[in-house]
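Look over this record before class:
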Amino acid sequence: MVNYNEEQMSAVFMALADATRRGMITRLSEGPATIGELGRPYAISKPAVTRHVKVLERAGLVSRKKDGRIHRCKLNPAPMKTAEDWIEKHRKFWEASLDSLASYLEETNDDR
């Protein structure tokens, strides 16, 4: 598992908070794509697509290679795995806490 600091983790969650960027991640999960291909499904300008890609790059989710005037993007899933691990850890905590609460409430109701 790759360990990211809090700042990097915040960048990942911030990047994934936007529906357009999540769509771009979904597209990149199918394979590399150009900036134009990433922006095609959205009614946004090419500079706006580039800004979205830069957010994904800063979060470490995407790498970009310039081939002349063509920018090719590739998904880097490692930061998402780190975020998934963090979410899973907290999910287990809350499930255990809610299970304990449910047991307590059942016992309380049985005593009545």
Summary: The helical segments are 6-16, 19-28, 35-39, 46-58, 78-110.
